[in-house]
Design goal:
This protein is of the alpha+beta class. Helices cover 29% and strands 26% of the residues. Helix 8 (440-460) links the parallel strand 24 and strand 25 (465-469).
């Protein structure tokens, strides 16, 4: 192959000034590239918000707040070491006297009574801490309101009542538990971990295995831990011999026969009566309407309002709020109109499940799903009015001999994080009855996780309405060691502290029950209706 001559066309060399210009352009290009990278990182961050705290930071803040609330509740927990029944507070040997008595009282006035607590020997107590419930009532008017006890820590108490209606009014004060019993109940709540035995049933198509479960299994054996990483809530079951952990299908519980208290404390609980009426040293009082004492008109029920005590009263079996204007919602058409276009999420225990049961039996066009399983989730809808409603349980622990099915996202905070929210989204939450057997810290931590999820929901959608319902009182013959209403009282105090300052609506179901003298875990239809009437008054106001 013949060689070919190739001529290269070379450019003249660059001048000094051109070299400087190229160097300058390169430097400018590098600067712009680095700036662009930093700007991209900035755009990746949420606008106008600081970086979200890590899981560790959130857990630390939650722990600090939980401890702060527990510290604030300490003053409600008596520390008394006395197990001799005759030296404990006795309702039958104590006395209620009327302070500053007069012939007539005005509607809107406050009346006070003094409670002098004595022991079973009739001798005055020198310290406080007893658990008292009090109310005024007029049976012929179907009227009642709760009183507000004040403990002077010397064996005497003052109970204040607001007189909401005219007529003959009775005063009733109950000694629920002596301070000595409360000290024992507190020890049982905090340190008796075997009040219930929980079992978990694992199964697949061909095999079924059952093991022990609890919120905290102290063991060296292999366990299945079911944990929410974000909120650090968990429970565990012993790992089945064959089946994998993810086959857990349901849990059940039964009362434990183990005695975790010393015999003296057990005997004190067995011999103590619950809800003993303390004798009045005075007759019924007379209340009249006074021209110079006209009650101030309340404003509309608005989200974020504080709920005082007393928060209202019954009259003619209808609840009237003391702090906002209500509608009675006696007409089904008013309920339908208020709920039209709404998506209502009821989350918690069976006392909030009563709401969907009430709506289902009252609103004829609201078609409800039915399940053979007592604790299964429920849904209801009215396609014509675009109303949807659902109830879902609050997750483990669930105290019941019936099957409690384990589902994904079973905790309330997980359900809340799934909601996008909106002006037609309504949430109502009630949790507490199934947590009474457990340490107070466990309950407060659960509430804090729910509160944080509520806060996130309201940040995503400020127009969402969220309600919190307090616990109901329950039967006086309930198992005292874990189901006493004192546990519910403490938890209600914690509930108020946790949600203080959060823009939620508060339904004080506890006070409804006290005012009506109802010691029923699932109160009657009238009480449930009045709870719902207050709930709807927040949504739709006194006129709409």
């Amino acid at each position: 192959m013949a060689a070919t001559d190739i001529t290269l066309n070379r450019k003249p060399p660059l001048s000094s000034s051109n070299k400087k210009m190229i160097l300058f352009l390169l430097l400018v290009g590098c600067f712009l590239y680095i700036s662009w990278l930093q700007l991209g990182k900035w755009f990746d961050r949420p606008h106008l918000l600081p970086p979200s705290p890590g899981l560790h930071d959130t857990a630390t803040l939650t722990e600090a707040k939980v401890n702060e609330i527990l510290q604030a509740l300490k003053r409600h927990i008596p520390a008394v070491n006395q197990t001799q029944l005759e030296l404990t507070s006795s309702g039958a040997h104590s006395l209620v006297t009327l302070m500053n008595p007069k012939e007539n009282y005005c509607v809107g006035e406050m009346v006070s009574v003094r409670v002098e607590m004595n022991d079973f020997r009739g001798k005055p107590k020198t310290y406080g801490g007893d658990f008292i419930l009090a109310r005024i009532h007029s049976p012929e008017l179907k009227a009642g309101a709760a009183g507000v006890p004040e403990d002077f820590n010397n064996g005497t108490y003052r109970v204040n009542f607001t007189l909401f209606w005219p007529g003959s009014v009775k005063v009733s004060v109950l000694l629920m538990h002596s301070s000595e019993v409360l000290s024992t109940l507190w020890q049982a709540k905090e340190y008796c971990n075997d009040k219930f035995i929980f079992t978990g049933t694992f199964h697949n198509k061909t095999l079924q295995e059952t093991t022990r479960c609890d919120i905290n299994l102290s063991t060296n054996e292999t366990v299945c831990e079911f944990k929410d990483e974000r909120n650090q809530e968990s429970f565990s079951c012993f790992k089945p011999k064959t089946l994998p952990c993810e086959t857990l299908h349901y849990t059940r519980s039964r009362n434990s026969k183990a005695a975790c208290l010393p015999d003296a404390e057990n005997q004190l609980l067995k011999r103590s009566k619950v809800g003993v009426t303390i004798q009045n040293e005075f007759q019924d009082i007379t209340v009249v309407t006074c021209k110079d004492r006209v009650p101030q008109a309340a404003g509309n029920c608005e989200m974020g309002m504080s709920s005082p005590t007393p928060s209202g009263f019954f009259h003619s079996d209808r609840w009237s709020s003391s702090y906002c204007r209500m509608r009675s919602f006696q007409n089904v058409s008013d309920m339908n109109q208020c709920l039209q276009g709404k998506q209502v999420y009821l989350l918690g225990d069976s006392t909030i499940r009563q709401w969907i049961e009430y709506f289902g039996s009252t609103l004829k066009n609201l078609k409800c799903s039915h399940s053979s399983e007592q604790h299964a989730s429920r849904t209801a809808s009215d396609k014509k009015r675009n109303i949807t409603m659902s109830w879902k349980s609050h997750g483990f622990p669930w105290v019941s001999v019936n099957s409690f099915f384990i589902t994904k996202g079973m905790y309330i905070f997980q359900e809340l994080d799934r909601l996008s929210g909106g002006e037609n989204t309504v949430v109502a939450i009630s949790v507490g009855q199934h947590l009474r057997p457990f340490p107070l810290k466990f309950y407060v931590t659960r509430l804090m996780n729910i509160k944080q999820a509520v806060t996130r929901l309201l940040q995503r959608s400020p127009l969402t309405r969220v309600f919190v319902k307090s616990e109901n009182t329950r039967e006086l013959n309930s198992e005292i060691i874990w189901a006493s209403d004192w546990h519910g009282h403490l938890q209600n105090l914690a509930l108020r502290e946790v949600f203080r300052g959060v823009k939620v609506g508060f339904i004080d179901a506890w006070e409804f029950n006290v005012a009506a003298n109802s010691f029923d875990l699932h109160p009657n239809r009238n009480i449930v209706h009045n709870q719902i009437a207050l709930f709807l008054s927040y949504l739709c106001g006194p006129s709409f």
